[in-house]
Amino acid sequence: MTTTDTGTVNWNPEALDEIVSNDGGRPVLFTNARIMTMDPLIGTMTGADILLIGSLIVGVGPAIVTAAQDDDAIVVDCTGTTVVPAVVDTVALVGGRGRRSEYVATLTPGSTTDFLVVPDELAADVPSAVATLVSRPEQVRALVAAGRPVRWAGADVPGRPTAPEAGIPAAPDLTGSPRLGVWIDREDFLHQELTADGRYDETRGGRPHAYQGRFWIDGDRIDYLDDLGFWAYGEFKGDELHHAGYVMKRS
């Protein structure tokens, strides 16, 4: 049903309230939809369900709804809508992946719950459904990212994550961070020093100051902006720092 004052829709408001207040323990079931999985084996299904727990899809197909009451699932009626991946795997679309296991952005069990729900008439294919988010956002029934609603019934969901501000962030004060210090790779070729003022300094093969710049840590991810202007990244895995093919440990 479309409201007259905003042009948006009144779509499953009770379900939204339940999902927003859900701590991740209750399953969420989007039911009776056309689902374009973008998986070459499963394909597109009509009158189908997609079941998610937390940030993962755990089931796709018809008749999952029959167990919804047993599982205390939050049920979202998707009659007349199509569910598509929120991200399009353009390489897969043109046959550029050789194996099914290489596909990304598919709505299959084990995948991350990033998907879009739009009216059937706006979903001739996945690209046109995704384009609705930009061209007719008021018609989007749901946009779900990692299991959490970002947009619902044509409007932003209150409390959704806010996008980072444009521009390069200020240098962080990392005093006391356990990740500061000198990181050295297994071959003793790369030495990377991370300092509390958010700067890094690399020695490569005994050549000091080979690369220098700024860095930011977000969880286990580290982003680098070199003084030469290029960006790079790494990842902390336990007591190791993985960066550009190097595996480093702190000295």
TrEMBL record:
User: Which Pfam families does the annotation name?
Assistant: Atu4866
Give coiled-coil spans as residue ranges: none
What InterPro entries does UniProt report for this protein, alphabetically? Atu4866-like_sf (IPR038646), Metal-dep_hydrolase_composite (IPR011059), Uncharacterised_Atu4866 (IPR020955)
Q: From the Swiss-Prot or TrEMBL record, give the protein name.
A: Amidohydrolase
- Tell me what organism the protein belongs to: Streptomyces glaucosporus
